[in-house]
């Protein structure tokens, strides 16, 4: 139960916020590359570039790992491939708001499953309502989307839930970013069969190299490394609900940088998600204080009732 009663770390919250802000920036860059390399090719290139950067940064020593650590890193890499590849494939076929709303069912479901505090269900429900409103807003825009896109978004959400679990396990077993470079290489290898032709097309277009590098840093290096660091500081249910800030930042970035519309429904959704995030943070902090107080009272009682 120790992992579920940890207090809220301000550093952990800031790390998640930075990660969720970097992701939509990276996605905005990635959309510029889709016409050349397609979703799978762009994702594979992103992961390869990120793995090179992370290998230089972290300098892992995998020959020292246990079999359990190797297993978890490989599974972490597979979930990383699914999370990124399926999401970009979904965005190619359905509106971004719908894709994000469907994808977030994964971490929200995980938050419900991991929660030991009934008050958390209020904030989880509030965040879920905000995501539904985002999806409704996108549907109201009268744009076409297909069932395959919905399936890809759902698979991305499932991958995200398992990504959170395996990221936490790898973070507990290996110090720093030790497991992340190898997991990113695994993810790139998983996507290689479906992304190879797109990778070739991107490689033959030198003028977009800087965009590809920016995409890799914003979409993989910053978010994944920050999230792994945050998972060492936050309960997993609180981490899952804090991820709901991503569609908020995505909406704001789309409005400011991409000149996308910012209507009443989107504003309502943003306020719901922000309210849920604040509520979960305060609730988890209060629960942590209650647990600490209980331990202190128990320790005092044991001292007072000791041998005498």
TrEMBL record:
Q: Which SUPFAM superfamilies match?
A: Multidrug resistance efflux transporter EmrE
Organism domain of life: Bacteria
Q: Does the keyword Membrane apply?
A: yes
Gene Ontology cellular-component annotations? membrane
**Which UniProt keywords are present, listed alphabetically?**
Membrane, Transmembrane, Transmembrane helix
Q: Subcellular location, in the record's words? A: Membrane
Q: Where are the transmembrane segments?
A: 7-30, 36-57, 69-88, 94-114, 121-141, 147-166, 178-196, 208-226, 238-258, 264-285
Q: Main site of residence?
A: membrane
Membrane topology recorded in Swiss-Prot or TrEMBL: Multi-pass membrane protein
What does the similarity note say?
Answer: Belongs to the EamA transporter family.
This chain's protein is named Inner membrane transporter RhtA
């Amino acid at each position: 139960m120790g992992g579920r009663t940890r207090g809220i770390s301000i550093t952990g919250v800031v790390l998640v916020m930075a990660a969720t802000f970097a992701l939509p920036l990276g996605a905005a860059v990635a959309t510029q590359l889709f016409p050349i390399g397609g979703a799978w090719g762009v994702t594979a290139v992103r992961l390869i570039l990120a793995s090179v950067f992370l290998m230089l940064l972290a300098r892992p020593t995998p020959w020292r790992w246990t079999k359990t650590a190797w297993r978890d890193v490989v599974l972490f890499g597979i979930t990383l491939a699914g999370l990124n590849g399926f999401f970009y494939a979904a965005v190619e076929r359905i509106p971004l708001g719908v894709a994000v709303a469907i994808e977030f069912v994964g971490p929200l479901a995980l938050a419900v499953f991991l929660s030991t505090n009934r008050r958390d269900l209020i904030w989880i429900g509030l965040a879920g309502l905000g995501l539904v409103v985002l999806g409704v807003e996108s549907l109201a825009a009268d744009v076409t989307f297909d069932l395959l896109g919905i399936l890809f978004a759902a698979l991305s959400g499932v991958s995200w839930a398992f990504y959170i679990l395996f990221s936490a396990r790898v973070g507990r077993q290996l110090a720093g970013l030790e497991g992340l470079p190898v997991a990113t290489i695994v993810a790139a290898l998983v996507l290689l069969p479906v992304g190879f032709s797109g990778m070739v097309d991107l490689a033959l277009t030198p003028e977009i190299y800087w965009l590809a590098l920016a995409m890799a840093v914003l979409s993989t290096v910053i978010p994944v490394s920050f999230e792994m660091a945050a998972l060492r500081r936050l309960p997993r249910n609180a981490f899952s609900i804090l991820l709901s800030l991503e569609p908020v930042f995505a909406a704001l970035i789309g409005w400011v940088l991409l000149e996308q519309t910012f209507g009443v429904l989107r504003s309502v959704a943003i306020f719901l998600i922000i309210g849920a995030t604040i509520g979960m943070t305060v609730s988890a902090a209060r629960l942590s204080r209650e647990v600490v107080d209980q331990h202190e009272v128990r320790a005092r009682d044991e001292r007072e009732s000791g041998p005498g």
